[in-house]
């Protein structure tokens, strides 16, 4: 990863430009490791140059600044669509009836398969870095969550911390679900109320892009993220 490429990435991604020197160095090392370990596959007509590949690697490694390179375990491919992509879903319900439908996604993280991103949405996040969105961080949060074998909103943590995390996240999640069910306005993206793992992933986006909103809404969750992800580059 040469200096010119890195300075172009740094100029494009304001979250990286805001890191202090030791954390930026750490991110650069993680990004280099990502580029060695992962195949980055653009889907036509998208093509990605070296700077764009380095940018994606660095962005995916932002949530690993404190957690470290173990966060890259268990998968080997980043697939990048030009824009939002359609996936075919199916589900057999309790009555044995098969339901099939199409979903339009901007990102997806398979349990032990690829991480998938929409390039147009990555760019939109970078254009407006304090709007509360970062699809790369969202999908990486799912990858961290599932490292212990269960996608439940809790990444692998030391035992005491894990207990406190589970308690605080459950409380915050319940309050959000209650507010959404009551039809009231909620400050964060209501998609977070879908499931505990979505709550973790959506709140992770706020940690990087709008930490003040997260702190106002869920101070205990914000405090766990300060420790888990380190200080927000948008603080
Ligand atoms: Zn998600």
From TrEMBL:
Organism lineage: Bacteria, Pseudomonadati, Pseudomonadota, Gammaproteobacteria, Lysobacterales
InterPro entries reported for this sequence: MetalloPept_cat_dom_sf, MtfA_fam, MtfA_N
Name of this chain's protein: Zinc-dependent peptidase
Origin species: Luteimonas composti
Gene3D superfamilies assigned to the protein according to its UniProt record, in alphabetical order: Collagenase (Catalytic Domain), Glucose-regulated metallo-peptidase M90, N-terminal domain
One Pfam family in the UniProt entry: Peptidase_M90
